[in-house]
Amino acid sequence: MKKIAQNIFLLELPEPSSNAYVLLGDSKAAIVDPSICSERQLDAALTAGGLSRKDFSRVFLTHSHADHASNARFFPNAVLRASCETLEKLRKKHPESFFAEFGVGFFEIPRAEEVVDGQCLKFSGFELLCLRTPGHVPDSVCFFEKKSKILFSGDSLFPVSLTGSVPRVFYSQGGSDLLRSWQKLEKECVGAKVLAPGHGPISKEVEKDLEESRRAIAGAFL
Ligand SMILES: [Zn+2]
What we know:
By secondary structure, the chain is of the alpha/beta class. It is built from 7 helices and 12 strands.
């Protein structure tokens, strides 16, 4: 695991995984976007970081796409937290989740709780602000950890280094929803220091990333 802030780590998993982030609390851990890989690969990555799946009491999803959500099935005892639309897509086995494409069968969700826009979840010393950010997909959510000022953006915002080539893939639904979502991030994530995206490198230039993304999307869609 690669440390990105006090008690917050990037869990390094093999392709085609999304970035998975571990929040290490005093007694229990949480994971944002558990990603996709085999059970063995997941266990190996956790073991290398001194953890096991039973240490996790919470799984957060930024959206339902399989490269972010699939490994949630390996944490049946944790509470799955996601937007109501994400939970509905998973429950109804929505084709947009692309699970078949990744060779993962749909899975049951034994314990789930929806997150609401603007809700701040406090646990194990963390304060996670949940923000609905439609654009990449309608069910997208970003999580802003208020103490460390880290923005877990899923596929809703990427660092400058990726925005040149990635927007057409990740922003396939067009730009206007995303622009509104980025405005919201700017307003709500005051003082954001670190952008922890769903793919690619972590960035410490959140303001610049927002600005460059706006420019890229204007060129691509508007
Ligand atoms: Zn996605």
